[in-house]
Batch of 2 targets.
Target 1
Amino acid sequence: MSENLLDIKDLNIFFKSDKNPEPIHAVRDLSFSLKQGEMLGVVGESGSGKSITNLALMGILGDGAIVKARECSFNGRELLSLKEREWQKVRGGEIAMIFQDPMTALNPFLTVEFQIVETILAHLNISKSEAKNKAIELLLQVGITSPKDRLKSYPFELSGGMAQRVMIAMAISTGPKLLIADEPTTALDVTIQKQILTLIKSLQEKNNMSVILVTHDLGVVSEFSERVQVMYAGELVETGNTSDLIKNPHHPYTFGLLSSRPGAVERLAKTPLASIAGIVPAFHQRPVGCQFNPRCVHVQEDCKKGSIPIERGVRCLHPMMEALS
Amino acid sequence: MKFFLKKFLDLIPTLLGISLICFFMIRLIPGDPVLNLVGERGVDPVRYLEMKKALGLDLPIIEQFWHFLKNAFHGNLGTSIVSNNSVWFEFMERFPATIELSLVALFFATLIGIPLGIYAAIKRNSFFDYFLMSSSLIGYSMPIFWWGLILILIFSVKLGLTPVSGRIDLTFDIPLFSGLYLIDTLQSAVLKADGLKPFWSAIKHLILPATALGTIPLAVIARMTRSSMLEVLGEDYIRTARAKGMSKTRIIYIHALRNALVPIVTTLALLFGSIITGAILTETIFSWPGIGKWIVQSITSRDYPVIQGGVLIISFIIIMTNIIVDVIYYFLNPKMRN
């Protein structure tokens, strides 16, 4: 037994596909853990397996997916052996999730009130009117003014930022132990981003809730989460304390991500921003050896064979030693 | 409100266009209503011209059209050449029969089609799904007149289970109240005289024509429901509902079905048009005394006023259903209300 809220060991996710006889290996040997009340940032490009991992933690990957793990325990319970009914208690009750685009994540045909109240009623043993009062309270808590009017609104009547606040209110309505925020600000205006993240952060501290914050923005992570893990092509490539990792990235991919930020490295005016050449390899054409080797500037012969173990938080045979500056 | 007003204003040019096309089309078909009336042996030319004049068919065609429009605008659709009854009277006499047949056909097509479509969507790519989709394709492709005859052949001729034609056994005397026999046979006077027998007789008479007429709508509704449901089930908000811990049943009926219904309602409206056209074939095969059979008969006898007037009324009804659907749409989709 450990004091961790979430303990994932060697999580593997496969997808059955019609085109390929072999299932696609989307997430490989992912291990991580999360303490109660801790915020973990997960960073990676599209296709790196961040969202898939989250959906697997919620048990809502769909029929084509096969999820295997040596351990996948949440609050002392093994998630992967849960039955559908038990899953329904966990989802929304103990693990809640908010999504990238709040405008499509809310049902356009149901009022805000309906959507929040049904969540509360599904998990807490209270009456409908109590649930409604709680919904009003929650909307106030996430910074929505005149919550009574807003309850009657349909999602299309809300702005993106407000819709995301509603999503957050709905997610925390049942007092979950873990909140998974899957790129919660990507679809929002930059001006709203910080407000939403600050809100999530404050709720995390107030409710002693654990948060997995998925983003592709390292700036966001550095500001809000204590710990970060970087994912690439379905693998965890680097993990560590956020400030250390940002100051001192060891994996060339992390280094690449950091130097692609505007202002990260000094450059002449009007020269293009630094970027990592190439794209994340498609699921069915993953390279042998280090997944990053086709795009890595420091690639060597031994990077192209065998699987690379993760050592001292880095999955790299030739980790970089110098600081970013 | 403005929205509905606009819809009603759209009605006028549509109806004008339809009557224009219909008016000239029927006059393009060879044949002469007067000759049809007097029989093949003909009549002496003086009498022939007199009759033509009496019917107003001697005037230039444009003038005839103008008269038709003017009268129609005043609510007078003319008089049948054959029966000398007003077109409106003839229509009202037959319309309940068509309504009864169409509603029963559409009702069962919806009642069976929607659950089948939902089930196929949930069990996507299963044997049931493939079976349902291929049989709906067959159902959709079957010509109504062929399918109707096959039904008669099997259930009426071979098995003797259902009557071949008509709406009810002629032995029963049904005082008309709504014109729908399923309702009229339940009047207390009828119940006192014959019990539920007339009602069952009406149902027995309805089964085959309603099946023949409802097959295509059933196939369309089942397919439409399936695809609409699949689309909705792939939406983000369904993922949210699952992430909230909602049960599968609740997700399907509360979170998905209502949203999936919107395109189905539109389809139902479009189907109403095709049901009326289907009714023309079905009623002819089953000798169902409705407006379909009426129009076909009037075409055979070149009864111009009946054709013109009948088509105008039918188009009006179809357009009105579309407007009603817009109203339903309005209540189903909160976005329309703003």
Target 2
Amino acid sequence: MINVVVCVKVVSANLIGRKEKVDGIYGLNPYDMYALNKVIELKKKVPCKITCLCMGKEDVKDVLVHCKAMGVDEAILLSDRLFSGSDTYATTYTLALAIKKLNYDLIVCGCEAVDGETGQVPYSLAQRLELTCIPNVEDIDTIMDQEIQVRYEDGEYMNTVAGKLPLVIIFKNFTTKTGKINLLKLKRAQSSPIIVWSAKDIEAEPDLLGQVGSKTKVCHAVNISNKKREISYIEGSSSEVSNWLEKVIQEN
Amino acid sequence: MKYIFVIADPNFKENSKACTELVSKAYELTNNRDAKVVTILFGDISEEDICEVVKYGSHKVIVCNCKENGGYRYYSNIVNVLCSREQPELVIFPGTIVGKGIASTVATKFGGGLTAECIDIKVDGKERYCFSRAAMNSSMIAQIVCNEDCIQMCTVKLNVFQKTGYQLELGEPEIEYFDCADISENENVLNLIKREKVEQKEQVDLENKQLIFGIGRGVSKEDIDKIKVISKFYNGEYGTTRYLVEEGIMKKNRQVGQSGINVCPKLYIAFGISGASQHMVGLKNTGKIVAVNSDKNAPIFKYADYGIIADSHEIIDCLYKKVIGDII
Amino acid sequence: MDFTLSEEQKQLRREIIQFSREYLNDENCMDFFSREMWEEISQLGIHGVIVSEEYGGMNESFLTGAIMIEALGYGCKNNGFVFVVNNHIWVGLNLIYLYGSDLLKEKYLRNMVEGKYIGSIAISEADSGSDAFSMETTAQEKDDCYILNGSKMFISNGSIADVFVVFAKVMVDNLAQITGFVVEKAFDGVKCGQDIEKMGLNSCPMCEVTFNNVKVPKENVLGTVGGGKSLITSALEWERCYEFACHVGAMQRVMEECIRYADERRQFGKAIGENQAVSHKIADMRIKIEMSRLMLYKIACLKDKKRNAYVETSIFKVFVSESYIQVCRDALQIYGAYGYTKEYGIERELRDAIACSIYSGTNEILRNTIYDMSKISVL
């Protein structure tokens, strides 16, 4: 039985093109959703126990219930007032402490989060756990006798490598689909509580958590979404319009 | 004397341009300050390579005679030793895959403040560095600073800084050859089993094209082929939205917008694209946007300069006939 | 009476809607039964909604089941596919679950819950539709089985079904007694005709099924010999409740599309929704949906209390079917010329809806029933 820990982040629904009213306030980071789907697929070939680890507020529990309905065996939410304002350094300190409390053979991450977009957590986590990290993974080929074989891409090449577990791997793709669930699993997940760990539960030092434990901070943020433009409509038959288009193309 | 480290990607040959861009930026940051640029190069480095780097502003170059393909942890160990020794105030890493791995690993080990995917670095009034990066689906620019007590580090997004292009007269460069014999490798070395060139990796240069055609959900498969011909004829390129990539109709390397590519052509002609914000975010620096959509309430008309409310198929067809007519 | 949904019910609803929207709305599969979609919905696990966990089901209450099925009708645009699923659940596996012997349940139930076998009910014949009990299919007792002879008509799911619940007349003491049987398509002598082309619900195949000296083992009798009439009555009750629960969801979907369209479409310098001729139609849709939903919850609660809901389901069926058809008809009118085109899908909704005043008992027959039941309770 391979113990796989998938680190996931829950993000605001409108960052992933969803409507809050219909789909709920939160959703899973699309990169993590892709990674999670891959691990669930793996479970069909190789017996594993999948644990989802997530740092967030109490109200993201619904998303973790959804993960369990997809086939995750265990979901752990790291939730504490002290965690808020964490940058990558503080985040990985927290995650590493939590992971050390679990049995792990393989740690899986998505390559970045659509809100933070730093893409640093997996490496930093690997460093804290003193593990090697394989980025840009396309697929897991096999896991046998504590050795994993993966294919990862670097530039123009697809590399097939084997490494001894435990390891950290990063999947590079994303998906905005919500993930296929099973209703019976959903029902069971609804009735079994999500495990919640506080800073005390993972024996974290408060000075190394949250904003206090972060090494960087955002001092300013500017919204640069599209400027509004004044539109002029081009009317006419298809051939007139295409003539106009041709002119515009040639002008530029 | 303060040092700004510029770490080169261990594969120097393929990433020399990125390296010199970072060196240029680093040199700019030393302006009127008591600071020097030290560039760290790995592996088999020639005299010419060193000259290139020096030319753009490196006061000192450290060449590490290390193994090839040692893995990012190996290179991190080298960088750790050098950082411990020199205590640089700023370390700049390239935003390549290996670069990011080294940066993250070194930052975690040192407890340094790491800002990833920077698009700008400035020195603020208090002699601290201020890093700019995109966030929230690239809809915001955040300014990041590090805590007072730690080494400041950053990885730089590729193609963001320009080489200054002027030659610098810095006198004789200081060159050090660093012996990596004592650098440890970590226990878990990956075993490379196979390395194959990825077949249909199309080299698409959307980021630098001046004319781009956008293909959206409202475009049929036959019309996609027509747009390919049209864009080639006008020396442009074609991009697409997330929907078509997810449906497998088009490849990811043509996706514009959220988690795809940001483009800045002079002219972007969108066919059958509704204009969801995730796609439009990739177009924010575009010159003129022309939108063709049969739905007059499509959101894209809020972001376009010119709107054509018509069936994309008809317009594409007319353009195509013109183009074919001209070719023949 | 508290009509608020629990958090769990809300989440179940949301998940089913999300799932249906992403995996069951393939535009290319609107006109035929898609095996891939069947696999997807089987993985979702909705077939076992009220079946006990012993057979792989979710053991949900009838009320939660109604909420879930309504969500399916709302999220999945492919009305024909939803029709297949409902036939399979409510008058296929549900009958075996509620009225079958342990042996029958062992044989068929789990596979049906997992979607490996598709179920179908066969009551109607070419000459007995509303007059169902005048059917002519016979089952003659011989040794340790019954020999089934006859043909059933307009059998939904016919060509894709693996297991049929067939009703036939058995002679007991010179009296013809309607009896239900579980018949596998694989039995010798079972033959499906060609799929019948219909006005709508094209993803649900429908055909004639003939039984030519089919040997049905005695253990495959569903319920008791001669107990067929009450089985049929019961089956129709389930169908009227849950098939039409889906239609409540479908009405909601169509209404929401009309609201969006009425807001976007502009004529005479304003949105057409600002005209009462249009907005009132939409208000009427809302009235019908809310009233339907209340009746649905009432019926589901009655079933949870193991009480009879015969007249309630008849009322519900008549009201929802006529509302659903009217909603689609009004939607077509609101969309105008665009609605008449194939591209917008509104005409398909109407074509799918029209059948519902016919199946599960025609509205005319049901009005007879309602009158009779009303007479009894008053006089």
